[in-house]
């Protein structure tokens, strides 16, 4: 990181120390271990250009994406006629938690559920796109609900107020990892879903380092697990269950419901008592590999 001074045409005229500089730039140096073919050079240039374009969009839309979370909070609160107070409160707390440096905001877009050619479809509101979901090429088209897999269709016709999952697509900004997906359902008075507000990004190191038992959504799942096991707070079994819960990767805890977490913890306890090595696998809710 350096301090940089540029003229009106963008030419670099001076380099200063980063601290105290009014304009800072990140200088990166890359070396290739071999000479590229012409086709590889073109592909590399295109990839770099796409990544830089994504970075510019994410930086430019940082504040609007944060503002979109407040919009999601308002939508969640309006779901009181269909969801319980506890569901709404936990959803609101989670969205506020994202704003507290626990999430790298990469993209946002609204999707309406509307009739298109006499079929109910997921219709992207292209103008609502922010970050990497702004100015898409090609323009996304409506997707009929009946064309979705049964697991994915259930997300739109029923299910929870908020969905937390992983995308198949890797992030082009911040770090190379599958992006975290937060989807919020907007429900009409008749109980049908009218829209989804979709947020893409990455949980930060702060989010991963914090205790799962203090994290909105996860803390409620822990509460449900403890209630299902009927353990007394402060007892040996209670402390053991909480300790095991805290050892789970947060990505897994977000992906599993309380019932699945409880079953997995039970299998771990059995394995510990038998002193065996055991492989425990989890089926992806959307049947992805």
Automatic annotation (TrEMBL):
<protein>
    <recommendedName>
        <fullName>NAD-glutamate dehydrogenase</fullName>
    </recommendedName>
</protein>
<dbReference type="GO" id="GO:0004352">
    <property type="term" value="F:glutamate dehydrogenase (NAD+) activity"/>
</dbReference>
<dbReference type="InterPro" id="IPR049059">
    <property type="entry name" value="NAD_Glu_DH_HM1"/>
</dbReference>
<dbReference type="Pfam" id="PF21073">
    <property type="entry name" value="GDH_HM1"/>
</dbReference>
<dbReference type="InterPro" id="IPR007780">
    <property type="entry name" value="NAD_Glu_DH_bac"/>
</dbReference>
<dbReference type="GO" id="GO:0004069">
    <property type="term" value="F:L-aspartate:2-oxoglutarate aminotransferase activity"/>
</dbReference>
<dbReference type="GO" id="GO:0006538">
    <property type="term" value="P:L-glutamate catabolic process"/>
</dbReference>
């Amino acid at each position: 990181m350096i301090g940089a001074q540029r003229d009106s045409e963008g030419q670099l005229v001076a380099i200063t120390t980063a601290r105290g500089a009014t304009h800072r730039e990140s200088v990166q140096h890359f070396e290739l271990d071999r000479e590229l073919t012409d086709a590889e050079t073109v592909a590399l240039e295109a990839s770099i250009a796409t990544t830089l374009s994504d970075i510019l969009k994410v930086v430019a839309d940082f504040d609007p994406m944060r503002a979109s979370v407040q919009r999601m909070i308002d939508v969640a609160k309006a779901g009181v006629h269909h969801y319980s107070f506890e569901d709404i409160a936990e959803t609101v707390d989670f969205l506020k938690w994202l704003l507290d440096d626990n999430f790298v905001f990469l993209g946002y877009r609204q999707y309406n559920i509307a009739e298109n050619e006499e079929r109910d479809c997921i219709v992207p509101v292209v103008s609502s796109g922010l970050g990497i979901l702004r100015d898409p090429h090609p323009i996304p088209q409506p997707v009929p609900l009946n064309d979705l897999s049964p697991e994915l269709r259930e997300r739109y016709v029923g299910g929870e107020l908020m969905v937390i999952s992983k995308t198949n697509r890797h992030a082009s900004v911040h770090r190379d990892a599958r992006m975290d997906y937060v989807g919020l359902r907007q429900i009409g008075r008749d109980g049908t879903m009218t829209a989804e507000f979709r947020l893409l990004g990455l949980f930060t190191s702060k989010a991963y380092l914090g205790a799962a038992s203090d994290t909105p959504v996860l803390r409620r799942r822990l509460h449900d697990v403890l209630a299902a096991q009927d353990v007394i707070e402060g007892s040996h079994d209670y402390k053991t269950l909480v300790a095991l819960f805290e050892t789970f990767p947060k990505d897994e805890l977000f992906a599993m419901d309380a019932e699945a977490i409880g079953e997995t913890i039970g299998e771990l306890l059995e394995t510990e008592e038998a002193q065996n090595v055991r492989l425990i696998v989890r089926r992806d809710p959307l049947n992805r590999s």
